[in-house]
């Protein structure tokens, strides 16, 4: 029973992080905190991807000089999710940089980061 | 050369995007460069459509020694990045490249006074890359990457006029929506990968069994793409983004929205097509969302004073027609008799409406951009009597307004008529809502026409002149397309739309990887 909980531990953390992320995006008034909320969501999704491909006690997914027992695909950590995670991290950096740039520009024009006050566009 | 066509579709605008920042000193050259690159991609996409019609589904495998090689020896499933292009992919590619070309042409004079134009054109080309990648790819993760490229480039363009606070506000709204939506897409992709160990669309669609996890993944994908295509109730970012973006980018941004719509169709029709009972329910959800979207969009539009914002609400409303048409088709997908009777017509109407709407809404938003260019304001109450000063813009506006309201000789009528006819067969109420929306649309455009173009000439616009030539050329091309598509809808339906509908319906064809496997 406790072993099962341990296997599912990363997924419980993913669910927790998703909840925290959505809470932050939905209920925080500071724009920077909203951006941080999106970063938390991204962390959750990345953790989910990495946890998917993890094999307990497995070998690193590198074929050169691998020990013979690693040749069995069951013993090797899946490489694709790791590649996906790397790509997603790089994209996430670009997105957060752009969001923070927008936030700085908004602060320059509105003098506040409170999302309830940044409402010139409406109707 | 010809077998590398799918790769070139991405490579050429990407090359253009990375070269464009080099024209920092000569910003006119950057504009000419962008026009040139987008013109080349228009040619390539037409060639692609020709190839698809000739040979059926094109499969292009990146990194294989022959492009036709699908299965590397020893593997039973495709593990490389693949592009898979069928009728609807090619159809969307034509829309995307055409609108990028028109947008670049219009931008030549429209944003001439701004600074940092080399980055503007680089972003425009990047946005085109994102859209083309989304509609051509046959790989789920690739779809996510291109979705993010389009989202980042699009929101950077929305915030392009960074001396205005409103532009940044609209930009960050758009970016937050697209970031959350694409993260949820990635999450769903993770679920599907965990279950089936592959990222290929065709492969997963063969394996999919629709257990609880699949249902979660489907729900996430459906909601995220509905969010990104601006359907009610996630439509709030659309008017802000469309209003603040420079008018030359509007066509491309519209297509990028419809690329998400394409992804929604692709997910519903290809990825999860094998679930026969629930799919009818999904189709009903799509149709009802469509009706709500068109009705709420148009009622919000009626009360607007800002001319571009009014038209942006119409963009939401028109998205509803596409959702309705294709939703009706999805509802009867597993009922061959109903599908042949009206389902196919409904889908043809919905898909035909995509290209029609892109054409006339770009035209309308460009005339709004022209009004802004001349008067410096977007407030309808401050305009008046511009018809004599800007005759060509006025004519273009009339054509666009007639088309969007679905008046007979123009293209809006051709596709809306198909939708009325066929959605009536599913449920008469759907058709009634669609027609009422059309009438309200006409009402709001009469309002714009009366307050901006008619009335006594105002003193402050004494010296107002017609807009520069590149803008006129772009608008006239679109107006002519409106009339042509309206006069000869059968040609477009036969050559472009029905291949696209068939591609969505014939899922088996998509799954065979172009005759192999």
Automatic annotation (TrEMBL), chain A:
It is a multi-pass membrane protein. It is found in: Cell membrane. Keywords: Cell membrane, Membrane, Transmembrane, Transmembrane helix. GO terms for cellular component: plasma membrane. InterPro entries: CPA3_antiporter_subunitC, NUOK/Mnh_C1-like. The chain crosses the membrane at residues 6-27, 34-55, 83-107. PANTHER family: ANTIPORTER SUBUNIT MNHC2-RELATED. This is Membrane bound hydrogenase, MbhG subunit.
Automatic annotation (TrEMBL), chain B:
Residues 138-441 form the NADH:quinone oxidoreductase/Mrp antiporter transmembrane domain. Its main location: membrane. It is found in: Cell membrane. Signal peptide: none annotated. It comes from the Archaea. It comes from Thermococcus paralvinellae. The chain crosses the membrane at residues 6-23, 30-50, 88-108, 120-137, 143-160, 172-193, 213-231, 252-277, 283-303, 315-334, 354-374, 386-408, 428-450, 471-488. This is Membrane bound hydrogenase, MbhH subunit. Keywords: Cell membrane, Membrane, Transmembrane, Transmembrane helix.
């Amino acid at each position: 029973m406790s072993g099962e909980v341990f296997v599912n531990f990363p997924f419980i953390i993913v669910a927790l992080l998703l909840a925290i992320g959505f809470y932050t995006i939905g209920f925080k008034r500071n724009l920077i905190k909203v951006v941080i909320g999106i970063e938390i969501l991204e962390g959750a999704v990345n953790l989910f991807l990495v946890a998917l491909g993890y094999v307990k006690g497995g070998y690193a997914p590198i074929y050169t000089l691998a020990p013979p027992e690693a040749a069995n695909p069951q013993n090797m950590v899946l490489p694709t999710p790791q590649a996906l995670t790397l790509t997603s991290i790089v994209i996430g950096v670009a997105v957060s940089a752009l969001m923070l740039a927008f936030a700085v520009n908004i602060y320059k024009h509105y003098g506040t980061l409170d999302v309830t006050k940044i409402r010139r566009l409406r109707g | 050369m010809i077998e590398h066509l799918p790769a070139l579709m991405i490579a050429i605008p990407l090359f253009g995007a990375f070269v464009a920042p080099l024209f920092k000193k000569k910003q006119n050259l950057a504009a000419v460069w962008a026009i040139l690159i987008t013109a080349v991609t228009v040619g390539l996409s037409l060639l692609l459509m020709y190839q698809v019609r000739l040979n059926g589904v094109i499969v292009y495998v990146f990194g294989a020694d022959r492009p036709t090689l699908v299965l590397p020896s020893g593997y039973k499933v495709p593990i490389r990045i693949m592009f898979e292009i069928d009728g609807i992919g090619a159809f969307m590619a034509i829309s995307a490249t055409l609108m990028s070309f028109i947008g670049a042409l219009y931008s030549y004079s429209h944003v001439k006074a701004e600074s940092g134009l080399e980055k503007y054109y680089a972003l425009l080309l990047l946005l085109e890359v994102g859209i083309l990648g989304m509609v051509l790819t046959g790989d789920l993760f690739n779809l996510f990457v291109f979705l993010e490229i389009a989202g980042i480039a699009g929101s950077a363009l929305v915030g392009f006029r960074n001396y205005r606070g409103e532009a940044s506000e609209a930009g960050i709204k758009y970016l937050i929506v697209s970031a959350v939506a694409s993260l949820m897409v990635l999450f769903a992709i993770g679920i599907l990968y965990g279950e089936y160990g592959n990222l290929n669309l065709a492969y997963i669609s063969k394996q999919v069994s629709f257990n609880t996890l699949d249902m979660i993944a489907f729900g996430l994908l459906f909601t995220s793409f509905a969010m990104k295509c601006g359907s009610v109730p996630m439509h709030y970012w659309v008017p802000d983004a469309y209003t603040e973006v420079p008018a030359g980018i509007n066509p491309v941004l519209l297509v990028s929205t419809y690329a998400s719509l394409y992804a929604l169709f692709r997910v519903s029709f290809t990825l999860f097509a094998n679930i026969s009972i629930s799919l009818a329910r999904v189709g009903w959800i799509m149709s009802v969302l469509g009706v709500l979207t068109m009705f709420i969009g148009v009622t919000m539009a009626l009360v607007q004073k800002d001319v571009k914002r009014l038209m942006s609400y119409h963009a939401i409303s028109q998205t509803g027609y596409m959702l309705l048409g294709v939703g009706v088709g999805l509802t009867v997908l597993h009922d061959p008799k109903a599908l042949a009777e009206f389902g196919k017509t409904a889908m043809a109407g919905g898909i035909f409406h995509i290209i029609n709407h892109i054409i006339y809404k770009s035209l309308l938003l460009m005339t709004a951009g022209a009004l802004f260019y001349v008067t410096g304001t977007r407030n309808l109450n401050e305009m008046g009597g511009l018809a004599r000063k800007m005759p060509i813009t006025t004519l273009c506006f009339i054509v666009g307004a007639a088309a969007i309201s679905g008046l007979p000789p123009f293209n809006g009528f051709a596709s809306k008529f198909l939708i009325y006819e066929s959605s009536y067969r599913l449920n008469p109420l759907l058709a009634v809502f669609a027609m009422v929306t059309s009438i309200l649309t006409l009402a709001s455009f009469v309002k714009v026409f009366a307050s901006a173009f008619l009335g006594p000439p105002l003193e402050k616009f004494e010296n107002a002149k017609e807009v520069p030539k590149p803008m006129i050329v772009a608008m006239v091309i679109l107006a002519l397309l409106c009339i042509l598509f309206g006069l000869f809808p059968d040609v477009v339906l036969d050559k472009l739309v029905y291949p696209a509908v068939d591609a969505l319906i014939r899922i088996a064809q998509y799954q065979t990887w172009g005759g192999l496997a």
